[in-house]
Amino acid sequence: MKCPVCNAEMVIENFGIEVYVCENGCKGIWFDQGELRKLDAKNEGLGSALEEALRSPRNNHGQRGQINCPRCSIPMHTHKYDKAKEVNVDECYNCGGFFLDSGELTEIRDNRMSDAEIDAYTDQMANSIPEYKQELKDIDAEKRRAEDIRGFIKMMTIGYWHRRF
Ligand SMILES: [Zn+2]
Ligand SMILES: [Zn+2]
Questions:
Q1: Measured between alpha carbons, how far is 136 from 139 in angstroms, rounded to an integer?
Q2: Cα(117)–Cα(123) distance, rounded to whole angstroms?
Q3: In this structure, which ligand is nearest to the CA of 97?
């Protein structure tokens, strides 16, 4: 699978969940929706992968603009928020995948989120739904998505891994 940012071939890494890492390029990480659901305390190797991505200098532009989903080839939605403590991620509303790039990971390192902040950020992301999805609203699917997002945000915060080790 090609990286949606720099077009390098991404490498599959298995941390108990499978993620695609842009090892030879921008160090971005791709999460399929099904894999996000499996995230739990056993995925400790993923903490190291995130740490490694943190150490990698960002080599794509901060203002890279919209990217296309590497699975569906349609534009992804960037969750952008103003507060310094929040992290921006790209979500595909079609397949439910998430892309996280190295610059975004740097923000995670620099900002610890409290549980309340994680909740607020999760709500904000979960409530950001494009119109075409609103019309097809499926309550169960939305609930699952909110759970996935919450797990994902928690996993991204470095405090999560530090509590664990
Ligand atoms: Zn890349
Ligand atoms: Zn997609």
A1: 10
A2: 10
A3: 2
How far, in Å, CA of 130 to CA of 128, rounded? Answer: 7
Q: What is the pLDDT along the chain (165 residues), one digit of tens a residue?
A: 999 988 999 999 887 788 898 888 888 889 998 887 777 656 666 766 666 666 665 555 555 678 999 999 999 988 865 554 445 688 999 999 999 877 666 666 556 667 787 788 788 888 887 776 766 677 788 888 888 888 777 777 655 555 544
Ligand whose nearest atom lies closest to the CA of 5: 1
Ligand 1 center to 124 CA (angstroms): 27
Ligand nearest to the CA of 95: 2
Of the listed ligands, the closest to the CA of 4 is 1
Q: What pTM was estimated for this model as a whole?
A: 0.78
CB 145 within 8 A of CB 130: no
Residue 60 CA to ligand 1 center (angstroms) comes to 8
What spacing in Å lies between the alpha carbon of 75 and ligand 2's midpoint? 8
